[in-house]
Design a protein that fits this description.
Strand content: under 5%
Shape: elongated
Low-confidence stretches: none
Radius of gyration: 20 Å
Number of domains: 2
Largest sheet: none
Mean pLDDT: 93
Structural class: mainly alpha
Order of helices and strands: HHHHHHHHH
Number of strands: 0
Length: 148
C-alpha cells in the first residue's frame, strides 16, 4: 500500500505545478518506474476526487496556448497528443468561433506590424507563419481580405 501512497504523492506534486491530463501523468509516473496497474488505480482515484479534471485541463491549456499566439488547429493537435479524447476537444475548441478571427489578427499584427504583403512571396511567408501557428485558411484569408 505504501507504493500507492508514494505514487499518489508524486502525482499530486505534479498536479500542484499545473493541470495534467491522465495520459501525461501516467507517462511521467511510468518513467519513474512504477507499475502501470498501480498508476491506473491512483489516477482513477484522483479523477473521482476531481483532482484530475480534463475539462479544467482543456480550458487552462486553450487559454495558455491562445495567449501565446497559437490557433485552434495547433491547440487541437497538441491536446490530442496529450491524450485528450476527441469529443472533449471538439466540445471546447470551436474552430469556427469568431474569437479566432480576432486572435489571428492579433498574432499577425504582432509578427508583421500591420504590413500587408506586397507580393506573392511575402504573402506566402505570412500565410505559412499563421498556418504553422495553427490557424485555418479561412481565418488567415480574413486578414488579407478584410477592410479593417
Amino acid at each position: 500500500m505504501t507504493s500507492l501512497n508514494t505514487i499518489r504523492r508524486a502525482a499530486l506534486d505534479l498536479l500542484a505545478r499545473r493541470e495534467h491530463s491522465t495520459a501525461e501523468l501516467s507517462a511521467k509516473l511510468l518513467a519513474k518506474g512504477w507499475l502501470a496497474e498501480e498508476i491506473e488505480l491512483v489516477l482513477t482515484k484522483l479523477i473521482e476526487e476531481d483532482l484530475i479534471n480534463h475539462k479544467r485541463f482543456i480550458e487552462h491549456f486553450i487559454h495558455y496556448k491562445s495567449s501565446k499566439g497559437f490557433g485552434p488547429l495547433r491547440i487541437q493537435a497538441e491536446l490530442h497528443h496529450k491524450g485528450i479524447p476527441e469529443e472533449l476537444i471538439e466540445h471546447h475548441i470551436k474552430i469556427t468561433d469568431n474569437a479566432w478571427l480576432i486572435e489571428v489578427r492579433r498574432v499577425w499584427q504582432k509578427r508583421f506590424k500591420n504590413h500587408l504583403p506586397q507580393d506573392h512571396r511575402s504573402r506566402a511567408q505570412q500565410m505559412r507563419f499563421l498556418h504553422y501557428r495553427g490557424f485555418t485558411s479561412e481565418q488567415i484569408n480574413h486578414i488579407f481580405h478584410s477592410d479593417d
